[in-house]
Q: What sequence folds into this?
């Protein structure tokens, strides 16, 4: 599996760009927070009100944002220089294997799936789980979510997925609902 | 002095508390050993369970989890070259080569014995220093507390950023403080940043935040990585775990030195365990007569850092409990557990809640004893747990975190926040931001605000109150020195590298730059 690393996909540069975007977002957040804080009663220095400290926090957030933008800019410049100095390289393989150590014998590996797509599906599933848990109840929502997670993260057979999901669901039911009295319904309604 | 220790033993040595301690050590080690879950995520996951017990039980439980998870991290560091946390990194340098030579059992036992020895020394030192420190705390006014809390946060941000840019920890710190202002304000009861949502009046939940940025974030990472589970065949017999006389002779010095270094590091704001273990490793290598063995399985390289790490964990309790100011995420969570139980750590803590304070100190000590008794014989089980596949761990973390976030206040809003905080934590971590300042900022933000307003009120609006006292002066001088020191040093070295005519000596400046980086 040989191929050229695309220039635009330079990880350091991408990360620096993302950091720049986040820093700008933080700066805007600090400004918006400060504007909202202006509506709070500030009192006087001798009798400070509820709005004084948030104003300082807003200012601090703006300063942190500016500092982060400055740092991201330096990172971007550095990554640009680094990219210019680094020739394109051939990727011969993408080693993913765990390095077996001579002291601790590694017998075999249980295959597991992963990647951005998997994580995204998992996150969406998690969002749905959180949303439906109070409506569907623990038994259905948790078993379905755990089953889905195991399914998308492994190549296990359907029967094993169901068994694992049921075991985890029952264990969490006894731990949280029975033992610790968390008031989540077991079944819908 | 030792009355307190006796009270601590009296508190912890009940059947229920001992059971809580042993169970939490066991669970903590399991959590520390499992791939992907470190001490922080472990403590975050267990935090909601502590609400079921009383304040002493909760504190003991978190202590056991913390110590167990740290030991679990050392186990993976020694056996698989995977440090469970940053403080275990130096352990990999020689622990893993020892395992490669078939001396993994001895390395594990040395780490556990080192933790025990350092724990004993640290407990004695804490017993000596805590009462006078508590008196120092009583001499503090609001301005001094504001200085220590706000200045400590800034110093922490600088130290935890390390060689990276300051913004990597300052951004999360400010985000944490910003989030802490949401909800009803303590002094006047005014609602802030709730945007008409009544549920937000109670403020955001620290449990949801901690679980989101540590546990959920970790789960996302694991799902992205698709970590293959590792099947380890290695088995350890008890005989393999017993260090020889020569090993013990070589370990005693590093244990003692590591304990002292770690104790000092624990009193500083910053990642004390990491600072202590790295400093101990450097010193052991520096003074050793067998320098060539370091990196190839020198037992001193395991004994020193492990002792330092453990002593730092014990001594870092002192500023938390005497001044109410935690400077590590785990301690911040311990403080949250106590706060939820209605216990307010602060300068009056030792006199108001002596049984909890001394109970905690003794629990940490007994946790080290428990590690020796409970954990070493089960080393085979820990190795077995390394096999746990991510496709089981990820859903378990997500379900536990959901229930954990919900159980604190029975509010679905906390669970929704959990998801948001999880994604936020992942983005921040992915972009190389440090997450610990976020939780510290969230926890200490209201403390800083309270002391800030009290200081102004008492000084009738005179802003010089923040720099007028000697303690304030010392604190702010330290803050300025810590924040600006590295940049000033770099500029000074660069100016020295310039020629007499003001021309830049390129070679000299490069050498200066390299020296600064080193």
A:
């Amino acid at each position: 599996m040989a191929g050229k690393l695309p220039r635009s996909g330079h990880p350091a540069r991408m990360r620096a760009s993302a950091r720049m975007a986040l820093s700008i977002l933080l700066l805007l957040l600090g400004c918006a927070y400060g504007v909202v804080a202006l509506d709070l009663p500030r009192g006087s220095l001798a009798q400070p009100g509820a709005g004084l400290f948030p104003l300082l926090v807003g200012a601090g957030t703006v300063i942190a944002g500016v500092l982060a933008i400055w740092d991201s800019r330096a990172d971007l410049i550095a990554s640009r220089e680094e990219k210019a100095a680094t020739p394109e390289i051939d990727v011969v393989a993408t080693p993913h294997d765990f390095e077996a150590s001579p002291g601790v014998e590694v017998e075999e590996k249980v295959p597991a799936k992963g990647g951005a797509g998997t994580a995204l599906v998992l996150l969406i599933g998690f969002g749905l789980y959180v949303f439906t848990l109070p409506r569907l109840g623990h038994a259905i929502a948790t078993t379905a979510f755990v089953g889905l997670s195991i399914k998308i993260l492994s190549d296990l057979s359907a029967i094993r997925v169901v068994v694992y999901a049921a075991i985890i669901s029952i264990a969490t039911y006894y731990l949280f609902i029975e033992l610790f009295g968390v008031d989540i319904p077991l079944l819908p309604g | 002095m030792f009355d307190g220790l006796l009270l601590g033993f009296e508190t912890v040595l009940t059947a229920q508390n001992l059971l809580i301690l042993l169970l939490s050590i066991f669970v903590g080690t399991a959590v520390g050993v499992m791939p992907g879950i470190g001490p922080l995520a472990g403590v975050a996951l267990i935090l909601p369970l502590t609400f079921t017990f009383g304040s002493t039980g909760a504190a003991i439980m978190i202590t056991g989890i913390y110590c167990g998870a740290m030991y679990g991290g050392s186990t993976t560091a020694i056996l698989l070259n995977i440090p469970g946390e940053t403080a275990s990194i130096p352990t990999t340098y020689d622990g893993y080569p020892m395992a490669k030579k078939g001396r993994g059992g001895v390395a594990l036992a040395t780490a556990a014995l080192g933790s025990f020895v350092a724990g004993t020394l640290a407990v004695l030192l804490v017993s000596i220093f805590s009462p006078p420190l508590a008196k120092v705390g009583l001499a503090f006014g609001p301005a001094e507390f504001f200085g220590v809390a706000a200045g400590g946060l800034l110093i922490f941000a600088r130290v935890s950023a390390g060689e990276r840019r300051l913004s990597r920890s300052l951004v999360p710190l400010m985000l944490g403080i910003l989030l802490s202002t949401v909800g009803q304000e303590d002094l006047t009861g005014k609602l802030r940043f709730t945007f008409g949502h009544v549920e937000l009046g109670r403020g955001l939940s620290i449990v949801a935040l901690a679980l989101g940025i540590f546990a959920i974030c970790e789960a996302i990472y694991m799902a992205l990585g698709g970590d293959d589970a590792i099947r380890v065949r290695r088995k350890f017999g008890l005989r393999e775990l017993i260090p020889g006389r020569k090993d013990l002779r070589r370990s005693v010095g590093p244990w003692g030195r590591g304990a002292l270094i770690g104790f000092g590091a624990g009193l500083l704001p910053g990642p004390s365990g990491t600072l202590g273990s790295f400093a101990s490793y450097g010193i052991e290598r520096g003074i050793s007569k067998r320098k060539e063995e370091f990196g190839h399985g020198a037992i001193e390289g395991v004994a020193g850092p492990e002792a330092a790490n453990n002593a730092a964990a014990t001594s870092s309790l002192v500023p938390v409990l005497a001044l109410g100011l935690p400077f590590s995420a785990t301690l911040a969570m311990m403080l949250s557990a106590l706060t939820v139980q209605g216990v307010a750590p602060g300068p009056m803590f030792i006199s108001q809640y002596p049984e909890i304070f001394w109970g905690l100190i003794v629990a940490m000590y007994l946790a080290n004893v428990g590690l020796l008794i409970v954990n070493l014989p089960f080393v085979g089980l820990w190795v077995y747990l390394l096999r746990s596949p991510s496709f089981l761990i990820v859903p378990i973390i997500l379900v536990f975190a959901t229930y954990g976030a919900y159980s604190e206040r029975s509010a679905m809003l906390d669970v929704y926040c959990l998801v948001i905080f999880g994604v936020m934590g992942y983005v921040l971590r992915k972009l190389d931001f440090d997450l610990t300042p976020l939780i510290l900022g969230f926890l200490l933000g209201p403390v800083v605000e309270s002391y800030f307003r009290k200081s102004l009120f008492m000084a009738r609006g005179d802003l010089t109150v923040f720099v007028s006292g000697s303690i304030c002066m010392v604190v702010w001088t330290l803050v300025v020195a810590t924040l600006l020191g590295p940049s000033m040093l770099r500029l000074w070295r660069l100016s020295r590298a310039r020629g007499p005519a003001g021309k830049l000596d390129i070679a000299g400046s490069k050498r200066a730059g390299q020296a600064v980086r080193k």
